[in-house]
């Protein structure tokens, strides 16, 4: 029989163990939109070349890249190069186990950017986007298994980035939310009203619908060709960054526009700490782009859709604060109108 003192010691150990476990669970639920991985003294051209070289040893593929920059202040400007990456095995899982509206969960992004006199590399957190774009656990069978795979993908990307010359400096970059709030994410705080409390599915709007007359694949390919032509010929300075097939008759397009990028960087920089070498800290949110356009079959219809842009901006830029959103209320609507015009060949 254990002595009374021994019992008390065991109980105390058990209590401290339980507290530690609960603390670890809470920490695991605290998910950032972006994760900084590395910083280097190399310039942007060298760092991006090193990252692209590191990618060649991986099964992951770069499917799009482009250069971005902030506005200029007193002759100072910050630059970035953002990459869209496809992990084929992960993409196949999303395609097989989730609806077409969940396509953005499969799209990976890495951002190489200038800040604080160094070049930094971060990624859009695949675990965060998986929780958002796979919806409530009850909606998709094996959601937690898919999220677990997203964590593996995140770890793989981090290991690739660690292959770049520099110092590993893991850091969470906002918005940062409790993981439970990301399942069925419908906006943040008081700004939920701006998104009308809609989740990702409810925020996805079909700007164009094409009835399938016979061959679904032919109708899908025609819709894609029309969209690509509309993007190429638009007069609003939008450009195509990438396209990724994510399942049968389902394709993700990423488009962007320099003016929209500059404004988004400025909005996110408004309330953040700045320095002479980091006047535009919002450059670390460049991975919020490109903007998705989804083409997919839904029954007897091919849909060409975009997400509500206020919902999308809250997801990626909420750390800018409520005031930044209320002072730029026109921006999401302007983006939405541009994309809708492009989809319908009116731009």
From TrEMBL:
Keywords: Signal. Gene3D superfamilies: TT1751-like domain. The keyword Signal applies. Residues 1-28 form the signal peptide. InterPro entries: TT1751-like_sf. It comes from the Bacteria. This is DUF302 domain-containing protein. It comes from Selenihalanaerobacter shriftii.
């Amino acid at each position: 029989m254990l002595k009374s003192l021994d019992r008390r010691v065991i109980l105390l150990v058990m209590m401290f163990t339980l507290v530690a476990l609960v603390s670890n669970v809470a920490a695991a639920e605290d998910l950032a939109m972006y994760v900084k991985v590395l910083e280097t003294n190399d310039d942007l051209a060298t760092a991006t070349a090193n990252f692209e070289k590191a990618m060649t040893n991986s099964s992951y593929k770069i499917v799009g890249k482009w250069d971005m920059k902030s506005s200029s202040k007193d002759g100072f400007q910050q630059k970035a190069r953002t990459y869209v990456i496809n992990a084929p095995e992960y993409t196949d899982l999303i395609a097989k186990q989730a609806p077409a509206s969940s396509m953005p969960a499969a799209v990976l992004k890495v951002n190489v950017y200038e800040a604080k006199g160094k070049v930094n590399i971060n990624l859009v957190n695949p675990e965060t986007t998986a929780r958002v774009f796979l919806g409530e656990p009850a909606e998709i069978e094996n959601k937690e298994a898919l999220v677990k795979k997203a964590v593996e993908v995140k770890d793989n990307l981090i290991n690739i980035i660690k292959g770049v010359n520099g110092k590993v400096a893991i850091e969470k970059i906002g918005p940062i939310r409790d993981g439970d709030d990301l399942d069925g994410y419908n906006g943040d705080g008081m700004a939920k009203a701006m998104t009308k409390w809609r989740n990702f599915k409810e925020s996805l709007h079909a700007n164009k619908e094409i009835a399938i007359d016979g061959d679904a694949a032919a109708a899908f390919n025609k819709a894609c060709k029309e969209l690509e032509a509309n993007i190429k010929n638009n007069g609003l300075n939008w450009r195509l960054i990438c396209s990724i097939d994510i399942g049968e008759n389902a394709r993700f397009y990423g488009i962007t526009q320099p003016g929209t990028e500059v404004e988004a960087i400025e909005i996110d920089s408004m309330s953040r700490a700045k320095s002479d070498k980091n006047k535009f800290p919002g450059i670390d949110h460049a991975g919020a782009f490109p903007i998705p356009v989804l083409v997919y079959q839904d029954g007897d219809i091919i849909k060409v859709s975009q997400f509500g842009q206020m919902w999308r901006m809250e997801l990626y830029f909420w750390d800018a604060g409520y005031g930044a959103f209320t002072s730029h209320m026109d921006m999401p609507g302007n983006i939405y109108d541009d994309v809708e015009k492009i989809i319908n060949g009116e731009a």
